[in-house]
Amino acid sequence: MKKIGRLYVVSPEPVGEIVEKIVMAARCGADIIQIRSKKMPKKDLSLLVSYIKTKIPMDKPLIVNDYPDVAISSGADGIHGGRDDFDLKEIKVFKEKYNLLVGISAYDSLKRGYVAEEYGADYVAFSSPFPSPSKEKIQTPKEIIEDAARTIKIPVFVIGGINDKNIAQMLELGVHGVAVLSYVFLKDTCQRVKKLKGIIERYAS
Could you tell me which of 197, 140, 198 has the C-alpha nearest to residue 173? Predict the structure, then answer.
């Protein structure tokens, strides 16, 4: 099982147009890459994930959002799921039968985080501490994130509007890591990844 690092990069839409930036993010220091697409047909998405897997460093987990069948068919390292993607009871099957890392979106719910941990999830992600294009409807109080970081034993990530100006606020709450989406793909992907990684490493030391 591959190591769960601290800087988690999630691809925005349209994923097919930013493959080079995704690969660059992995090569420049992102620890985990998630391919997220609501628009691409599953067959095409599976082929794209398989291709990206050949281009990024072997030690970087490649995660598929939402679709366990795509994760399995593409040879990805893991699956990330929300409320409507699969039952938490399926986590054990994904891990034992397919050797997948399994991440779960906890949103703003400590209870969902605890249940995901109980069922064997490898990490949980809480959203959203800041407004963002993908998470504008969910606002998670810092107190919940801090409680999650303190009481959940598996790695806790936070996602939503995180950038170089506010990442420290999240790391100070004790989370394992942060997930970023739009910030690293707007421009200067490599430099932005390296900047975030440098900040994270100061808190991890």
Answer: 140
